[in-house]
């Protein structure tokens, strides 16, 4: 179960701060997808931790690119070694795992064509796109981080547990995120036009 893997990874966090490097080293061979799932958890609940969306969003993009190229990931040192406040991050991650635990009961291997090697590049590209959406500088706007985070989580759940239905749900989540961002952009543009007019 993905929730068990994530709980174990979070419980192993020691000290006042944690870095992405430490999380990657602790997550083993499944690390890339596991870190992508973990990186979406802080945004499932309305709590803002400064700097987290940039670090985790960039990590998702770079890890997804590594999956796309079918090679080991390369991450810049300033992303790998940026200290994050463990005391604030761990409780948020555990709350995110509670969401994953509810999802776990519905996950099962199905529709293997959507999770196999032939779809690797498409799925990786969508994951990278989700990471870019997560990095968008819209933090103060409600659900601007939550919407892409849900898509990323559903997509990674589907890939880790070979569930094509959840891969499709992840795609849907990312499409809805783009629609939400488009509406925000339209409202901002029309509001600005009215002010200038």
Helix and strand topology:
Layout: H1 2-11, E1 17-18, H2 20-27, H3 31-40, H4 52-69, H5 77-80, E2 84-85, H6 86-104, H7 120-135, H8 146-160, H9 164-196
Antiparallel strand pairs: 1-2
Helix pairs in contact: 1-6, 2-3, 3-4, 3-8, 4-7, 7-8, 7-9, 8-9
Keywords: Membrane, Transmembrane, Transmembrane helix
Protein name: Protein exod
InterPro entries: ExoD (IPR010331)
Helical proportion, percent range: 55-70%
* Neighbour order of strands in the largest sheet: 1-2
Largest sheet: 2 strands, antiparallel
Number of strands: 2
Q: Between the first and last Cα atoms, what is the distance in angstroms?
A: 56 Å
Unreliable segments of 5+ consecutive residues? none
Overall pLDDT confidence: 82
Strand percentage lies at under 5%
Q: Can you offer a commentary on this structure?
A:
68% of the residues lie in helices and 2% in strands. The termini are far apart. The longest helix has 33 residues, at 164-196. α3 (31-40) runs antiparallel to α4 (52-69), α3 (31-40) runs antiparallel to α8 and α4 (52-69) runs antiparallel to α7 (120-135). The chain has 197 residues and is an all-alpha fold. The chain has helices at 2-11, 20-27, 31-40, 52-69, 77-80, 86-104, 120-135, 146-160, 164-196; strands at residues 17-18, 84-85. The mean pLDDT is 82.
List keywords for this structure.
two-stranded antiparallel ribbon; mainly alpha; 2% strand; single chain; 68% helix; globular; 197 residues
Task: Give a nutshell description of this structure.
The protein is mainly alpha-helical. It has 9 helices and 2 strands. A two-stranded antiparallel sheet has the order 1-2.
């Amino acid at each position: 179960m993905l929730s068990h893997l994530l709980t174990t990874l979070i419980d192993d966090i020691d000290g006042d701060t944690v870095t992405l490097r430490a999380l990657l080293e602790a997550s083993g061979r499944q690390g890339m997808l596991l870190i992508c799932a973990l990186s979406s958890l802080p945004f499932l609940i309305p709590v803002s931790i400064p700097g987290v969306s940039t670090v985790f969003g960039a990590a998702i993009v770079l890890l997804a690119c590594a999956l796309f190229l079918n090679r080991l990931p390369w991450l810049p040192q300033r992303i790998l070694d940026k200290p994050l406040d463990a005391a604030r991050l761990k409780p948020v991650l555990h709350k995110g795992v509670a969401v994953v635990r509810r999802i776990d009961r519905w996950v099962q291997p199905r529709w293997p064509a959507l999770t196999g090697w032939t779809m690797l590049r498409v799925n990786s590209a969508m994951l990278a796109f989700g990471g870019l959406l997560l990095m968008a500088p819209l933090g103060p706007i409600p659900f601007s981080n939550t919407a892409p985070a849900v898509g990323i989580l559903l997509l990674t759940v589907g890939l880790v547990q070979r569930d094509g239905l959840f891969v499709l749900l992840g795609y849907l989540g990312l499409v809805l995120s783009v629609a939400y961002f488009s509406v925000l952009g339209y409202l901002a543009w029309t509001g600005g036009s009215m002010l200038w007019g």
